[in-house]
Amino acid sequence: MIGRSIDIPTPHGVMDAYAAHPDDGKAYPLVIIFMDIWGLREELFGLARRVAADGYYCLVPNLFYREGKFRYEPRNAEGRTVSFNTLPEDVQRDMRARAERLNRRTLRADVAAILDFCKREAVRDGAAGSIGFCMGGREAFFTGQEFPDRFRATASLHGSRLVTEADDSPHRLAHRMRGEVYCGFAEFDRGAPPERVSQLEQCLRAVPRLTCKVQTHRGARHGYALPDRDVHDHAAAEKDWTEIFSMLRRQLGNGA
């Protein structure tokens, strides 16, 4: 297994990232993991290695690279990273503002740069996958909608802002997507109440060329899928990964 830090040139500067893939010289399907609002960190790199071990080239880009290398990991007495809603209001405000500066346009430019970079890497042409956590769930949807000919497997775990009033809200452009979508939600998540989850699912199921599964985990809280988080729910996260790996194998035609 190879896991390393990489730099990806873009028209807006150098995007730092982490890549993991099998160490056998073969080309593998691309899977991008989109970070949450906390930035790049070892927690996400470990997940990238898990995906890579199943037979994929997994890349985790720093979506905040235009503003520098940002990472924020406040921890509790047990050494777990704390949940967003426990942070001071001014910190929450700054982090939300940083996330809101990302949009469909910035995502399109960043993924185009990633795909160009991957032409020189051990990446197989053909179907690719995207997986996102919280803020990254929205980016994963954007990717499937902006590059539908390439990205055929989309996974969003406790994704945020998937249903909004904006004209380009992910749920409004579900018709662009192809292949398969999996969404895991927490029962307790102010950003994804049942009515929004239901609205998203209805939009996905209305697309003839798209297979989807939406699952809400009872008792889970927002952030449950991240292994270092204070609210991590191992059982719920493993159910998600079972679904995700099955989807990747079906849509990307690979797997260890």
General description of the model:
Helices cover 32% and strands 25% of the residues. It is an alpha/beta fold and 256 residues long. The chain has one domain: Rossmann fold (3-Layer(aba) Sandwich), CATH 3.40.50. Strands 1-2-4-3-5-6-7-8 form an eight-stranded mixed beta sheet, sandwiched between helices. Helix 4 links the parallel strand 5 (128-133) and strand 6 (151-157). Helix 3 (104-118) packs across helix 4 (135-146). The longest helix is centred in the last third of the chain and has 19 residues, at 234-252. The model has no long low-confidence stretch (mean pLDDT 95).
The main β sheet shows up as: 8 strands, mixed
CATH superfamily: Alpha/Beta hydrolase fold, catalytic domain
How many DSSP E strands?
8
CATH architecture type = 3-Layer(aba) Sandwich
How far is it from the N-terminal to the C-terminal residue, by CA? 13 Å
Based on secondary structure, the structural category is: alpha/beta
Spans where pLDDT lies below 50 across 5 or more residues = none
Shape: globular
CATH topology (fold) name: Rossmann fold
Gyration radius, to the nearest Å? 17 Å
